[in-house]
Every structure is written in structure tokens, then in C-alpha cells.
Amino acid sequence: METLHINKPFTFPNGSTIRNRLVKSAMAEGYMEPDCLPGDGLITNYSRWAQGGWGMLITGNYMIDPKGMSFPGMLLVNNDTVSREVQVAKLKAFASAARANGTKIIAQLCHPGRAGILIPGRGGKNIAPSPIRISFGDGFIARALAALMTGTPREMTREDIDNIVGKFASAARLMAEAGFDGVELHGAHGYLISQFLSAESNQRTDEYGGSALDRTKFAVQVIEAVKAAVPDGFIVGIKLNSVDYQTDRSAQATKEGHVMNTEKQLQECVDQFGAIAAAGVDYVNVSGGTMENPRMANGPPKSTRTKAREAFFLSFAESFRASFPDVPLMVTGGFHSRTGMEEAVAGGGTDLVGIGRGACACPSLPSDVVLNPEVADSEARVVLKKYPVPWWLSWGPQMVGVGWENNFYSAMIRALGTEQEGKKN
């Protein structure tokens, strides 16, 4: 079989090379020790993925601030209740297992901003670019959930901004010291960086708000601080939202009943992309959705053309590529066949293919299926089990249903680790 494009090495702008284009993307793992650091089970999972032929592995969210947690049970660095020495030691064990067999390991760093879940004892309100509460919908249950779970955030001061920029940098420095190959800054899914980028959640009147480019300032500062904190050759990527969400220029997208000007949105996103690319990121991971409209799980409404091409956000990535051909792109979501992955990379729409749930269902998906020459194209597919949302959850906000599905995959991750640990004992 002729060498597939997805089986060819890829070199990032900083000179780091991965052996193929298949990336285990970040997922909500919810699998940590009481000190909010990875334990034996999660280490076992990543060791198993490392042996599965992936070019690169991206961890689930590492929260960078104990006062900002997207959900209980998330991994946490910059934890003032755990010594730096202990954090480095545990992260080193994790990184060593994940890098086995020549696989690169990337830590996803995140601050949830207004999307953080209020946890007793963590202290104070959530912080955000503007004091605008997240919306789960207009119904009573949705409004009550938003008030109880996230509350109305406090607008960030300049001191807050400098503090959080510093926490991203210190988290990246910690990961480099622990032996990780890079970090991915989470600028999608309605978390803090994404909140600064969005005109809906960022209504500031200072230098961090206003035009599309001004709203990019926080993201650029985070990138610059992180790059200054890590050694040469350390990968710095960022995950960004697509223009919510269907980017076919012949159609208009709708959100919450309002028609959006997708051409204007697209141009603003391209402008922001340019500023972020100029800051020196090594790749951009294109995804989509927020807690308010969680398309990251199932993708946008699909046209016939999109269904044929599999990937949820490929058309949007191609819009970026037209303006910035030299910026490495990764598209996450929707890939389910070798043919679809190969066409996306060979056609130039993306450089890297991000796969999340498929990595849970088959940890060795690259070596056993997608890149295995003995498996025919017709059989080289990602097979996912459906987890129907109970009818009674359909009355609640959409994010509750998505959370139901995510819980199954988080449980699958824990089961993989437990199963392998049991085989060792």
C-alpha cells in the first residue's frame, strides 16, 4: 500500500517532529488523585495510548488556577496545597509513560473563566472579561442551573489579567520541567481565552475589548508569556473555536433563533487567527462549541457535503488555510474512517487529525486499524457505541445531555486504566 499522508511524519515550526498525523485529542477525563494530579490509572491509560501508534497525545484539561475549575475532578497544576517537587515528580512519571514508543505528549492548559463550576471552599466568584453570566437557556431550570453552577462572574481587573497570564506561563514551565513535549492552550469551548475572543462575552471598553483584534490581546499575551517560559523546541499550540458553527459561505448559521452574519464572523475570526499566528504558535487546533451551545460533542448541523467529508470543522479550517497557508492546522471532531482522514490531509484542509472518543473505544486505533495495511479501507473505521440521553434529560439544557454522553467516555477512560492495572497485579 502506498504510504498514506496520515502516516507521514510532520514537523512543527519549532523543529519538533511527530511520526504520523494522528493525534489523540483532549477529552474530559475526570480521573485524578485527591491531590488533583495523575495517578497510576491515568498513567496506565496514556502508556496504552503511547503503544497504540499515535503521533501525538493531548491530555485532558489541566486547570492552571485552583480558584478556577471547570468541573470537580479536573487535573490541576499551580496547586498551592501540593509542593512543586511533588507536582513535578508525579507529572514526570506521567510524561515518561506517555512518551514511550516515540509518542509526543502535550498538556492542555485551561482556565474556565465564567464557565467554572462554583466549588465550596475554592473562594469567591468566577472571573471573566465582563460580568456576563453564562446562559444555559431561557427556561426556569436552565436559568437556575446557571445561577447555581457558575453565578455571575466578576470582571477581571488588569491585575487579574496579569496574574492569569503568569499562571499559564508557570504551568507551561512546570510541564517542560516534567518532560512534556509541549502544551495546548485551551482557547475554545467557551473557556477564558475564548471568552476574551468573543464579542458576546467580552464587552470591555479598555484595550482588551472592542474590535476583533483588541479582543485577541489577552490570547496573544498568554502565548508570548508561555513561549518565554519554555525552552526552544517545546511545542506551543492553541485550540480555537470555529465560527459557530457551519461555515459554508452559501448558508447562514443560526444560534438561539438569531441569524448571524457568517461572513462578518468569519472575517473577524480570520483577523484574530492572524494575530494569534503572528504570536508564534506551532499549531492551531480547530474545534467548536461552548457550554451554552456544546457542538464540540456532536458537531454543527451537517450539510450533505459536510457529511461526506466527515470532519465537523474542516470547511472552517480551509478558510484559515487560504489566508495563512504556513500555519499548521489540526481539526478535531467527526472523523470516522481512514478514507475521510486521508482525504482531509491529502487535500490540504488540515495537517493533523484529532480523534477523541475513538481513542477511548480503541486505544490502538492507529496501529491496529487506520495505519494497518492488512485492514481494508472499507473496514478501517472508528466504531462508537451510542449512549442515548434519557428522555427526561431532554427537558433540560443541551449541555446536560452532552454531559451525560461525556460521563460515559470518562467512565470508559477510567475502566481502561483499571483493567490494565488489574492485569499487572
UniProtKB/TrEMBL annotation:
Keywords: Flavoprotein, FMN, Oxidoreductase. It comes from the Eukaryota. The keyword NAD does not apply. Residues 8-368 form the NADH:flavin oxidoreductase/NADH oxidase N-terminal domain. Transmembrane segments: none annotated. GO terms for molecular function: FMN binding; oxidoreductase activity. Belongs to the NADH:flavin oxidoreductase/NADH oxidase family. This is NADH:flavin oxidoreductase/NADH oxidase. It comes from Microdochium trichocladiopsis.
